[in-house]
Structure formats: structure tokens, C-alpha cells
Amino acid sequence: MIAQELKELREMVAVLQPPKPTRRPILIDEACKILGKAKPTVYTLSRLGEIPSCRQGRKVYFYEDELLEYINSGKVTTAREIRETAEQALYKGTRRR
User: Fold this and answer.
1) Neighbour tally for 62: CB within 10 Å
2) Residue 8 lies in a domain
3) pLDDT tens, residue by residue, 56-79
4) Rounded distance between C-alpha atoms, residue 4 and residue 84, angstroms
5) Of 4, 19, 61, 91, which is most buried by a Cβ count within 10 Å?
6) What spatial distance separates the first Cα and last Cα of the chain, rounded to whole Å?
7) pLDDT at residue 95 in the model
8) 9 within some domain
9) Which region, left, alpha or beta, applies to residue 87 given φ > 0 means left and ψ of -120 to 50 means alpha?
10) What is the pTM of this model?
């Protein structure tokens, strides 16, 4: 009885867990679509190390998840986020004696 309930709980947990993202390599054409940039620009960014890439011989490969992280890293901080960060810093600095 307990073993059956344990099995059911494990199945429920497995269903609720998000699927693991697969790291799939993509070529330059798909990377251009994801980034919204031209091929020469993507090649240059790759060569300069601005965007993550791998080179196998003459082929350049990108990982979709790394490109999406690159896009998110350029996110502009909103005024609200700046204000919240400043308030947290002020509250940390004020101590009562």
C-alpha cells in the first residue's frame, strides 16, 4: 500500500517537473534568425568572442540556449529595478546602534 502511494507520488512529481532543455547545436543561418542580425555581423561577433560559439573545422556552431542567454544579458534595467536596488542598498547601510 505505501509502496503504491510512493510510486504514485513519484509519477506526480515527474509530471510536474519542467522538461530539461536540450542543448542542440545550430548553424549560422538559424543563429542569424534568433539574433536578428546578418551573417557577416554574427561571424564578426563570434570571432571577437562577443557571442558564444564553437568551431569545428570551417563550420561555426552555436547553441540556441546560449544565444538566448546572450540576448537576455543585454536587457536594459528598468527604472523600477534601479529604484529597488538603491532602496535595498540604503536599507542594508542603515543599522541601529
Assistant:
1) 24
2) no
3) 998 999 999 999 988 888 877 788
4) 48
5) 61
6) 59
7) 61
8) no
9) alpha
10) 0.57
